[in-house]
Prior knowledge:
Elements: E1 18-23, E2 28-31, E3 37-40, E4 45-47, E5 57-65, H1 72-75, E6 81-83, E7 89-104, E8 109-112, E9 118-123, E10 135-141, E11 148-157, E12 160-165, E13 170-177, E14 179-187, E15 198-203, E16 213-217, E17 223-229, E18 234-239, E19 245-251, E20 258-264, E21 272-280, E22 290-296, E23 299-304, E24 310-316, E25 324-331, E26 336-337, E27 341-344, E28 349-356, E29 360-361, E30 365-370, E31 373-378, E32 387-393, E33 400-407, E34 414-421, E35 426-435, E36 442-443, E37 448-453, E38 461-471, E39 477-487
Amino acid sequence: RATSGTNQVNIKLLKKTLTGSIEAAAGGIVTLTNGAKISLLANSIVNRSNTVAYTGTVNIYAAYIDPSATDIAQTLPGSFMADDINNKRVTLASYGMLAVELESSGGERLQLKPGAAATLTTPIPASLQSTAPASIAMWYLDEQSGLWKQEGSARKTGANYVGDVSHFSFWNCDRPFSAVTLSLTLQTSKGLPLINTQVRLSAAAVDTFAASMAYGTTDSLGQVSGLVPANTPLVLDVLDNCNKSIYTKNITALNQNTDLGKVTVTNGSSSIITIQGMLLNCNGKAVTRGYAIINLDNMVAYAAVDDNGHFEAATLLCSANTGNYDLIGVDENVNQQGQKISGKIIIPVTDINNVPACGISSLEYIQYTVDGVEHAITGKSGYDSSLIAYNFPQPNTMLLTTAVFGWNETDYSSIEFRFTSPAQAGSYSMDTLFVTAVNGGILVKPFNITITNFPQSAGEFYEGNFSGNFTGDRNKLHSITCTFRVRTRR
């Protein structure tokens, strides 16, 4: 769960792979390479957007998620936090998961018709079969809340769980357990917070909670908090970026929400690295209010300077992975930042002296006019901003979809827009737009966005502009013009 520092989430995408195809009118079964199966009845498929019966070819895209895999914290959608049938918050012990999507031959999204069912066969990992119960609850991922919701059950058949589902999403075979909230702060022996560091909480008695684990990632202050199984002894593992445990601590059984306070990671592992340096302003003097944006090993860290311009941050990397860093220095006193500098990570301490924080404006904003009424959103300093921009890849292409958000904390107005493009400047068709000022955003095409700068790493900016028409409440036509400069924070 979110903590008071800046939180970063690492997500591993599942490759969208065509598992097989069937004819909707006939139904059929498709099988994954590990034996997982999706079985559809005849005439049970509808178009997802309008629930009209579908009779053509059904393409089935499916993926199995192994809860015993070392990278489960990244591949797991959401977390193991769930609401049971009584709407009680619990934590889950998984015995196997399946993700299933249905599409027509033309790419339309399909779904089971109301009242229909499909059968899922979910393999149980070999290491969990001895503790797998004969019957188990099934849970689907609520994509709005990010929580698992209980629905139905599955029976153990050989080395699999077999159960019926009423719709397709991520489905999980799990045992639920009462939970409490555990909080703690990781630090080095020098007292530096260990940031963006993954922790794993597992039951000490493996035969009791064979698949019950909780994962979390520390924030910019080294804090982490989340649900763990109640009333059972736990083991805390601090993991490097290769999911290897470099520090272990036993925790007694908890029957109430608990804050362990500061936990010092004393292991002398070479996974622990410190990056430090000095920020200089345009006059060559120490920056007294600012921060360094550090990008390393697919992780972004923000390190504030002290009164002498010194910054310092500690985190974990894979022991054998020295890798490289990118770094940008920001001077908040004069809203300036320097060019990106790069170098090789040195373990245990990477010392970067005299980092320029000068030459480029660090201001960010979205300025837009709707029907002649001007609006302006200005980003806060640092990483706690009212402006957000990020991108994510489109499957099987070299294109990225970029999302830009801005909200005004005074009147709660906001704007959101998205576009798909290669990672470079240019003019592109706008995908979506939503403006709360008029509660709408159905674009009147053509509607293009011009990107004058496309960031290549964290700390750089999306810059551009667009103008056009869109409809809002009661199909009223509106006009908009917009210029923006928004920092990407990853």
